[in-house]
Amino acid sequence: MTNDVRTVEWTGDGLRLLDQTVLPGRVEYVVVRDVGALVDAIRRLVVRGAPALGVTGAFGVAIAVRQAAREGWDDAGRDAAITRVREARPTAVNLAAGVDRALPFVAKGADAVAAEAQALLDEDVRGNHAIGAFGADWILRRSADRPLRVLTHCNAGALATAGWGTALGVIREMHDRGRVEIVYADETRPLLQGARLTAWELDQAGIPCLVQADGAAPSTILRGLADVAVIGADRIAANGDTANKIGSVGVALACHAAGIPLVVAAPWSTVDLALADGGGIPIEERPAGEITTWGGIRTVPDRVGAFNPAFDVTPARLVTALVTETGVLEVSAGVTPRQRAAEKP
Ligand code: MRU
């Protein structure tokens, strides 16, 4: 992504968000200065992707503190507004974690909250570069000595983070080392994060890319057309079960059947050690209209509804490697986040 495009930026009195709902056709920004507008932007996926939501949540606390002062709210009103931000979307643990990180600074005022949120943003970019290097090292050490064919699902790039990206950070790093032949970007139904966002980022970075229908992904893998799949994550349980965009499970099953690695790239903040396994991960269900219409036109018979879970949970046994900013965990070989956390001093 070009350096002048920033997903999330604090303006001093509000949050400037790159409007991801209109990409790739238009590069537009919205500035939000109140909690209602921020919650709406999060729900509509103006800003999205677990790490970007974490940073947005932290800045959202600063917005709530400013709005409370401006509009004369008491502490209970301010705290209720912060809770609305925290709960705007349920699956990515980063949103709640970003809000929680900012909470201790509320008493010091909005500028102190914003400074902490900015620290989280800066850490995210640094962490993503580390994820990229660890992930590329791990993949390339185990691969044939040639440029690789990489499959990815949804968008885990600069747009989904504060910069560089997690899964796309790994792919960018591999590309910088001359080791990417092609990226198969799943289009990612129903909101097309792969077709609209991942393909846009890869194109900007000069990384060769083909968009394919989600339904093509397992077949691409089974036909031997991909060497590795690299995806992001929204929440990872203590045992390594991983929630990511709906459709990730099909990719994981195909990788397992074909004997190629499924690499999950995510910051450690996406690990939720409070959940023993993926059974406890809340799965967001989005409006039926995202499925029943196409370009504003109804495509499903009038009396038929839709089931629209936005995420699925890949069992740990299918996750070959989890790459974080602190290193690589070979999850399917039995190295779990719970175990790694216990080893930490
Ligand atoms: O609904 P979205 O677009 O927020 O879903 C995003 C994903 O599923 C990403 O893969 C995940 O958040 C990782 S982003 C680095």
Helix-strand blueprint:
Blueprint: E1 8-10, E2 15-18, E3 29-32, H1 35-43, H2 50-71, H3 75-86, H4 93-102, H5 110-141, E4 148-152, H6 167-176, E5 180-186, H7 193-205, E6 209-212, H8 217-222, E7 228-231, E8 235-237, E9 242-245, H9 248-258, E10 262-265, E11 271-272, H10 289-292, E12 293-294, E13 297-298, E14 311-314, E15 321-324, E16 327-329, H11 337-343
The site of 5-S-methyl-1-O-phosphono-5-thio-D-ribulose (MRU) has 18 residues, from helix 2 and strand 9.
Features:
alpha/beta; IF-M1Pi; binds 5-S-methyl-1-O-phosphono-5-thio-D-ribulose; 39% helix; 2 domains; methionine biosynthesis; isomerase; Four Helix Bundle (Hemerythrin (Met), subunit A); seven-stranded mixed beta sheet; four-stranded mixed beta sheet; 345 residues
Descriptive overview:
This protein is an alpha/beta fold. The protein has two domains: 8-123, Four Helix Bundle (Hemerythrin (Met), subunit A); 130-343, Rossmann fold (3-Layer(aba) Sandwich). It has helices at 35-43, 50-71, 75-86, 93-102, 110-141, 167-176, 193-205, 217-222, 248-258, 289-292, 337-343; strands at 8-10, 15-18, 29-32, 148-152, 180-186, 209-212, 228-231, 235-237, 242-245, 262-265, 271-272, 293-294, 297-298, 311-314, 321-324, 327-329. The chain has a seven-stranded mixed sheet. The model has no long low-confidence stretch (mean pLDDT 97). It binds 5-S-methyl-1-O-phosphono-5-thio-D-ribulose. 5-S-methyl-1-O-phosphono-5-thio-D-ribulose is lined by residues 45, 48-51, 92, 154, 156, 160-161, 166, 193, 232-234, 244-245, 310.
